[in-house]
Amino acid sequence: MKRLLSIAFILSLLSFSGAALFGQEARQQTAPMLNYKVVEDFFKVPDNHMYAEAVGIAIKSNGHIFTLNRGNHPFEEFNEDGSFVRSYGEGAEFIHAPHTIRFDKDDNMWYVDAGNNLIVKFDKNMRIRETLGSRPEPWVFLTHGIERALAGPDHFYQPTDTAVGPDGSVFVTDGYGNSRVAKFDSTGKLMTYWGDRGTRNGQFNTPHSIVIDNNANLYVADRQNNRVQVFDTDGKFKAVYNLPGPAWSLCITPGANQVMF
């Protein structure tokens, strides 16, 4: 039970207002309470769909709700009232260990597969438009070139999450095997990356989630270090927020006065 509570622990970190987010005037405010009610059987999942671990949820601009799970129907789409629309991804070989889904401002869906070391971009019609990284191919390392050669820096080692900046830049927390954040431009070219395993500012131990605010500040859930670190989009360290437990997942509200949980 304690483990479940730590996973579900809501990070009520900051209320943001104005542009001076980290200036002398910046201050931590009390975040508003989340009002909610439990609706039994809200999602009308088809009888022949068996959920495994449910690892992601995201809402499209039209209000449709997308869920991600590790069962035989990994992507499922629902209307706002919970009625089932359709599912995606059955039998796709690039789906191995689903980890996260996010929508960007253009309704592209970004899917993170920690097992296949892939980031996949779907357009609003759920067609694949871009991939970052590549699936592991052990037979190549065993039979071609340098035995067990390490992948280059534009590849991942069990990535965990993505955030998309206003200019289309993509930020990837990478992740379980690596301990870094990688930045790609809007065409998928690796621009920079920062971080390694450790406890100092700018280092990580399982960077597990990432979000970006309206002022282009990046917040990284540094899970095993029990903190959230803040960077600019070039990787310059700006601030750190220590927490009483692991930082598992972050979300940030839209609009002018943003709140992060």
Structure description:
The protein has 261 residues and is mainly beta. The protein has 2 helices and 18 strands. The radius of gyration is 19 Å and the shape is globular.
Question: How is the biggest beta sheet arranged?
Answer: 4 strands, antiparallel
Structural class: mainly beta
**Binned strand content:** 25-35%
Q: SSE order, as H and E? A: HEEEEEEEEEHEEEEEEEEE
Total strands: the figure is 18
Oligomer: single chain
What is the mean pLDDT? 86
Helix count, per DSSP?
2
Shape: globular
Roughly how many Å apart are the termini? 21 Å
Instruction: Output the strand order for the largest sheet.
Output: 2-3-4-5
Percent of residues in helical segments? under 10%
Low-confidence stretches: 1-27
Estimated radius of gyration: 19 Å
Short description:
With 261 residues, this protein is mainly β. It is built from two helices and 18 strands.
What are its keywords?
261 residues; mainly beta; 18 strands; 5% helix
Any chance you could write out the topology, listing elements then pairs?
Elements: H1 2-8, E1 14-15, E2 54-59, E3 65-69, E4 75-78, E5 84-88, E6 98-103, E7 109-113, E8 118-122, E9 128-133, H2 138-143, E10 159-164, E11 170-174, E12 180-184, E13 190-194, E14 207-212, E15 218-222, E16 227-231, E17 237-242, E18 259-260
Antiparallel strand pairs: 1-18, 2-3, 3-4, 4-5, 6-7, 7-8, 8-9, 10-11, 11-12, 12-13, 14-15, 15-16, 16-17
